[in-house]
Design brief:
Keywords: Chromatin regulator, DNA damage, DNA repair, Nucleus, Repeat, WD repeat. By secondary structure, the protein is mainly beta. The protein has one domain: YVTN repeat-like/Quinoprotein amine dehydrogenase (Methylamine Dehydrogenase, Chain H, 7 Propeller). β7 and β8 form a beta hairpin.
Length: about 400
Amino acid sequence: MRWIKAKTLTVHWHDDNQPVYSCDLQQDKVEGFRRLATAGGDGNVRIWRLIYGREDNDDKESVSSVEYLSTLAKHTQAVNCVRFDTTGEYLASGGDDGVVLIWRLLSEGGVVPEFGQDDDDIKESWIQKITCRCNTSEIYDICWSPDSKYILAGSMDNTVRLFETATGKQVATIGDHSHYVQGVAWDPQNEFVVSQSADRTICVNRVTTSTTGEISVKNMAKLSRLELRNSGDGNKRTIALYHNETLQSFFRRMAFSPDGNILATPAGIFKSSDDSPESHTVYLYGRGSLSQAPIAHLPGLKKPAVAVRFSPVKLDLVPGLPNEGVFSLPYRMLLAVATQDSVVIYDTQQTGPLALVTNIHYAIITDLTWSSDGKTLIVASADGFCSSVGIDV
């Protein structure tokens, strides 16, 4: 890694300094710039433009500030998650009011303020296209299918729901968990959906589509425990893979790698043996063994991990550096891990952390998102601010 630069962006993100619960970057530049969506405890979704500038008289491009573009104000309670679809044309938001709203940028007609909205600073308008309802149960996490035809929503009623984005119709329900669902992920190869809950489990479901176009999901595995090394007395012992419901976080945001070969899950706890102390970790699963025990775990975390996100870019292997990782890939990928108070960046070519970013927020970190070129990482926090991390690898 040639350089890394972190900066807290001190702007008025949401009303009354309410927490920023989620953030997501539009993966393709539209109209020549990159949009950032944020979700706030004030019940609003806000759209921002990233402004890049040269700092410290060097030639390193990093985010210097953001420009306010629009407020999406249809939610009635806190918004917990925002996600652009893969095309960048649509944005989905889910929150405590139990709905997932799908938005589209109004490309014609200029700025159209909401009724009763007095905001002279609005530079673009987004219209609500579809509403997906979750029976008034709070929604903690959402994700799009790779083809943008469906949205997965994890809820406080222990349920995962699958919605058709063209109509808002609920087409499937997954009731595998016994506690709040705090993270969901959809396989980029469109074969699996995975959820993570405060019940200390992850559930893996296979997705299939019939000849008539109807989608269905079938449970493959529910993983909750890891077998310890033999303690010497001949008895097999196991430990829970994940923290219980007392973990101080609303979210356990999991993620697949962009190639779909790796699933990373936060909130992990690890013991190497019966007598060793517990440590915080992120568990990694291989695509071919999603129904089995994790194949690796990430060291170096001082606090519990609450969210993970892979960079969308596949990087060339570093010449002369042996491939220490458990994945024999012809390229390497970066994984950002948000713990309660820091961000740790890992590289699939090596086992240890690549970089550590600390002291950027005063409250718990809630979400993180990469730019499409893998050079910018945005971090959201319950302190009401977002930070940018510039990376050159």
